[in-house]
Structures are given as structure tokens and as C-alpha cells.
Automatic annotation (TrEMBL):
Record note on domains: Consists of two distinct domains, a catalytic core and a N-terminal extension that is involved in tRNA binding.
Gene Ontology cellular component terms for the protein in this record: cytoplasm
Keyword Hydrolase: no
Enzyme class label: ligase
Its job: Catalyzes the attachment of serine to tRNA(Ser). Is also able to aminoacylate tRNA(Sec) with serine, to form the misacylated tRNA L-seryl-tRNA(Sec), which will be further converted into selenocysteinyl-tRNA(Sec).
Keywords recorded for this protein, A-Z: Aminoacyl-tRNA synthetase, ATP-binding, Cytoplasm, Ligase, Nucleotide-binding, Protein biosynthesis
Protein known as: Serine--tRNA ligase
Location (main, coarse): cytoplasm
């Protein structure tokens, strides 16, 4: 959500951003509504001034004039009573339109309507050449008894899974490894619920546009979050933090739920795209300064690259286009990791800077050293999400005998050099 003053002073910048992000907002409607509200406020203030002056005059008036003045006061009060609800209705409409305003994307973002305009900026490592016919992750799981996919489908339906034996232990080791990486990087570990009230999703930006991605709890104002970012973004909602307490850097751990309503037919097999998954998340709330945001953006991205390098996985860095990054983003860089069975890279990490777009929605503010209260800036990035990363780990590190090697950095966490079949 953008600052109304900024929109008034930079309508062409905002119009261009709406276009580049494929937004649906009619900026002229928003500006017209804004002018109407300003006019209505002016009239209301004039009437209130008149009512006060009239009341003072009535108090001092001689009895003969008083009745007329009191009658006049009643008429003014009646006019005010009619204006107030009109003003509230217009302000509610304006707020809904403001929710749809886009953050101006950074000048380096590829301009285009969708992910086909995303740009590969760097590649790390190279896909392995197998000296034997490699198996895909589902075959590896089934051959080694590392999971229950069919049985769970009967219990929980499609896009569900159970991990078993060494693979289950490996997932836990990976999550702890990623968490430790963030704690070493100065992030505060925090585990958060997987559910939150509706206003929290508005504060994040998930609502109003993408409600279909979110599961709702029947009969309650409670929704399941697709990422701990939703809750972490609301942790300090409504507060005015002292600048000395910034930045807030959280390593969020949560179970994530997504309906994947828009993904019918995509990745229906195995662990790539499921309804419930685990994620270690980087979330930062910092001072409203671009170089501070850029610094955190680079740091969060390097945390994730370091994790992928420790996992000895080939990946590439993607600069996301204006049409693919979504309304609130100033900049988004994804990491895509190699999937041998698909012979292509697939997204495993998504790093975003949103300037004050989320802060305005969730009322995240701080008092600067200069005493001035400002909206903060927010950023987020994946540190590690399982089970998707298991697809890449199983397939890239598989051995001819069907076992899977554990990267050096994970051995202290997993306790063995390879995953073995469940007896
Ligand atoms: N349905 C899903 N199944 C499995 N993994 C998923 C699913 N949806 C997302 N992920 C994983 O979660 C990562 C982050 O998801 S994201 O929507 O791109 N971004 C966020 O959630 C941000 N909060 C940064 O983590 C993805 O890169 C992917 O690795």
C-alpha cells in the first residue's frame, strides 16, 4: 500500500508501476475519490466551525435572538449528521483501492508481464553427469521405504505425504541446520503458529488478492498461513518501535499450508508441491532507508546461497520480472535448484524487499532518533523449505545402489554419511 501523498505527487510513476505489475487498479478512480473526500472534509470542517461559532453566539445572545440561533445550530448539526456517514463510506472505498497500489519496482527489475521475462543472473555449480540411469525422487522413496505416498493419499488426499525412516530424520536435520545458519547470522529464532486472523493476511498482502490460496478454519476468523512471514509481519503491528530496537531479524519456523488452488495438474507427483510443508524463514523489519534494505536483501540472499552451497546443490539466481514479483515487491530474487529428473531448475528460495508496502498495511512504525515516526521497511527470504528441497537432495546425491549421500555439512546433524533403506 502506497502513501497517499506520494500517489498525489507522483501519479505517472504509480500509473507506470500499475502497468508494469499488471495491476487492476484504476488510478483515476482513486484520485477522484481522494479529491471528493478532501472536499467533503473541507465542508465538514467549515460546518463544525460554523456550529461552534453559532453556539458561542447563542450563549451570549439576548433571549429574543437565542431561539433562532439554537434552531440554526440544529440545522447545522443535521447537515453534519448527513455528511459523516458519507465521508466514512468514501474513506473505506479509498482504503480498499489503496490496498491495490503497487510498490514502485527497482530500476533493475526486468520489465514484463510474467515469469518468462525473469532473468538468470548467476549459475552456481553444474548439473551432475550420471554414469548410471538415475531415479526420480518418488522412485528413490519407494525403493528405500522412505515414505508413504499412496497410503497417505487415502488418508489426506492428493498433495499429501509421509516421510519415513532416514528421510524423515534427514528432514529434521536439514531444518535444524538451516535454523542454525540463521542464528549464526544474527537472526532471532522464533516458532510461530500456522494460523492467524483475517486482518493479519491483509497486513501481509496475501489478502485481498489471493484468498483462494489460503485454507480457512470453519466457523472461525482463522486462516492457515502459507508462510510464517504472514505472522512475523504482524508481530509488531500497531506498535511504534524505538529506532534503537531495529532491525528486527527473525528466523521463523512454522508448518505452512497452501491450497495450491491455482496449480491443478502441476507437480501432482511426490514432494514438489504439497498442501503442508515446513519452512525456516528469514524475516527482517528495518529502518526506512534504501541502503539499509539493500544491505539486508544481500545478506538474506547470501544466507540462502550459503545453505544451498553447503547442500552441494547446483542452482541459479533469478532476477524476477515486474509482472511476476507481485504488487508489493520493490525487488525479488529467486534461487532455483537443479532437478535431474526434470532436467531443469525449480524454485526453492524467494527473496523479497517490499519497502514500506507491508508496513503501511500492518501499521509497523518506529520513532527515529530525530523523533519523527515513520513506517518501517520489511524483507523476507526462504532459508530452507522441506520437503521440496528433498527432491533435489535425493536426486542429485543418489548413488547407483539406490542409497543417497549426505553432504559433508549435514553429517554432524544427520549422524551418517548416507541415507539407508528403512528396514
Ligand atoms: N506448495 C508447496 N509445496 C512445497 N514447497 C513449497 C510450496 N509452496 C512454496 N514452497 C516452498 O516455499 C518457498 C517459499 O515460498 S514463496 O511463496 O516463494 N515465498 C515465501 O513464502 C516467502 N515468505 C519467502 O520464503 C518456495 O520457494 C518453495 O521452496
Amino acid at each position: 500500500m502506497l502513501d497517499l501523498k506520494f500517489i498525489r505527487e507522483n501519479p505517472d510513476l504509480v500509473r507506470k508501476a500499475i502497468e508494469q505489475k499488471g495491476g487492476a487498479l484504476d488510478l483515476d478512480e482513486l484520485l477522484a475519490l481522494d479529491r471528493e473526500i478532501t472536499e467533503l472534509k473541507r465542508r465538514t470542517e467549515a460546518l463544525q466551525a460554523e456550529r461552534n461559532a453559532n453556539a458561542r453566539a447563542a450563549a451570549k445572545a439576548a433571549p429574543a435572538e437565542r431561539a433562532a440561533l439554537i434552531e440554526k445550530g440544529k440545522q447545522i448539526a443535521q447537515q453534519l449528521a448527513e455528511l459523516e456517514p458519507q465521508l466514512r463510506k468514501l474513506e473505506a472505498r479509498l482504503k480498499n483501492l489503496l490496498y491495490l497500489t503497487p510498490t514502485i519496482p527497482w530500476e533493475g527489475a526486468p520489465v514484463g508481464p510474467d515469469d518468462s521475462f525473469n532473468v538468470e543472473t548467476r549459475v552456481h555449480g553444474k548439473p551432475r553427469t550420471f554414469l548410471f540411469e538415475p531415479l526420480d525422487h518418488v522412485e528413490l522413496i519407494n525403493r528405500n521405504g522412505w515414505g508413504e505416498l499412496e497410503r497417505i493419499a487415502k488418508i489426506s488426499g492428493s498433495r499429501s505425504y509421509a516421510l519415513k525412516g532416514d528421510l524423515m530424520l534427514y528432514e529434521q536435520a536439514l531444518l535444524r541446520f538451516a535454523l542454525d545458519q540463521l542464528v549464526e547470522s544474527g537472526f532471532t529464532p522464533i516458532s510461530v503458529p500456522a494460523y492467524a486472523r483475517e486482518e493479519v493476511f491483509y497486513g501481509h498482502g496475501q489478502f485481498p488478492k489471493a484468498r483462494e490460496d489460503v485454507y480457512k478454519i470453519e466457523g472461525e476468523d482463522m486462516y492457515l498461513a502459507g508462510t510464517s512471514e504472514v505472522l512475523l509481519n504482524y508481530l509488531h503491528a500497531g506498535e511504534i518501535l524505538p529506532e534503537a530496537e531495529l532491525p528486527k531479524a527473525y528466523a521463523g519456523v512454522s508448518t505452512c499450508f497452501r491450497s495450491e488452488a491455482g496449480s491443478a495438474g502441476k507437480d501432482v507427483r511426490g514432494l514438489m508441491r504439497v498442501h503442508q510443508f515446513n519452512k525456516v524463514e528469514q524475516y527482517v523489519l528495518c529502518r526506512a532507508e534504501l541502503e539499509e534494505s539493500n544491505r539486508w536483501f544481500e545478506l538474506m540472499l547470501s544466507n540462502s546461497e550459503r545453505i544451498l552451497q553447503a547442500l552441494e546443490l547446483p542452482y541459479r539466481v533469478i532476477e524476477v520480472s515486474t509482472g511476476d514479483m507481485g504488487l508489493g515487491k520493490y525487488r525479488q530474487v529467486d534461487l532455483e535448484t537443479w532437478v535431474p529428473s526434470e532436467n531443469r531448475y525449480r524454485e526453492t528460495h524467494s527473496c523479497s524487499a517490499l519497502l514500506d508496502w507491508q508496513a503501511r498495511r500492518a501499521s509497523l512504525r518506529y520513532r527515529g532518533e530525530d523523533g519523527k515516526v515513520r513506517y518501517a521497511y520489511t524483507l523476507n527470504n526462504t532459508a530452507l523449505a522441506t520437503p521440496r528441497i528433498l527432491v533435489m537432495l535425493l536426486e542429485n546425491h543418489q548413488n547407483e545402489d539406490g542409497t543417497v549421500s549426505v553432504p559433508e555439512a549435514l553429517r554432524p546433524y544427520f549422524g551418517k554419511e548416507r541415507l539407508e533403506p528403512t528396514r
